[in-house]
Amino acid sequence: MRNILDFEKNISDLQKKITKLKESGSDKSSLIEVNEQIEQIKLKIDKKLSEIYKKLTPWHKLQVARHPNRPHFLDYIKILIPDFEPLSGDRLFREDPAIICGVGTFKNKSVMIIGNEKGNDTESRIKHNFGMAKPEGYRKALRIMKLAEKFSLPLITLIDTPGAYPGVGAEQRGQSEAIAKCIEVSLSLRIPTLSVIIGEGGSGGAIAIGTTNKILMLEHAIYSVISPEGCASILWKNAKHAEEAATAMKITAQDLQKLKIIDEIIPEPIGGAHRNPSQTIKNVGEAIKKSLNEIIDLDSQNLIDLRRRKYLMIANQSL
Q1: How far from 70 is each of 65, 282, 294, CA to CA, in Å?
Q2: pTM to 2 decimals?
Q3: What phi and psi, each to the nearest 5 degrees, are found at residue 111?
Q4: Mind listing the pLDDT tens digit for each residue in 100-113?
Q5: Phi-psi domain of 292 (left: phi exceeds 0; alpha: psi -120 through 50; beta: other)
Q6: Helix (H), strand (E) counts: the chain
Q7: Which of 46, 56, 165, 222 has the smallest CB count inside 10 Å?
């Protein structure tokens, strides 16, 4: 059974009924009856999920965005870019597995791709540092951005990180400079760039690879300058106010589209991306194709001008 979120308790009870029914069926006639009952319960689950997910609060959306069963970067790559060839290392310090970069073919177009990988079990989460990159990760991303520009390849980024790694070693190696340099270079790239927030878009760690011509966002993903828990700890001196902070910070895709910070919301299956990863990946692929086609033929100066105007508008909104 999938990890059930706090606001999905009714769903959990119905799923337990399905499990009991599956265990009860024995002869052929009773099995047919059991299957019919199971189908009826599944319809009830879909209806309840649809009702619940239409009324999610920002705090609930944060929980959905962090769900461990959401598809991660490597899941998307496996389906959308099957010939993906990873490009490793920053050529300065070492490889950072929290950010994965490479080249491949998307819908018959050669592209460069950069993304955060969180991992899907204890071993892989530790290996990828829960998607929290260190300076070498951002310097690797910077190298790939420049490589994409050199070979005139569109750049796609998939964002899913709580934020940049805040450790002492990362700060000593110039974490803030590495992030700032990524943003600076992103603004002047002479190629089409597009980013998709597939889960958490946390802080400068997300913005470093998300300063693109187009920003797409999954329906229940979040994008914020700091985590609600971090915000609550600063403003209220108590992380218990995180739910209040999540609402005030406007972290949802719906809020951010109204503020014109993101360009498009990609729908998720009923009950969130974690309930139907394959459909989610398909939806993301279609949205990327559509948005990329809108900018693929623009000349380099136009791309730069559009990108800079976009972020100046966002900055002016906050003044």
Answers
A1: 8, 14, 28
A2: 0.90
A3: -140, 155
A4: 999 999 999 999 99
A5: alpha
A6: 14, 8
A7: 46
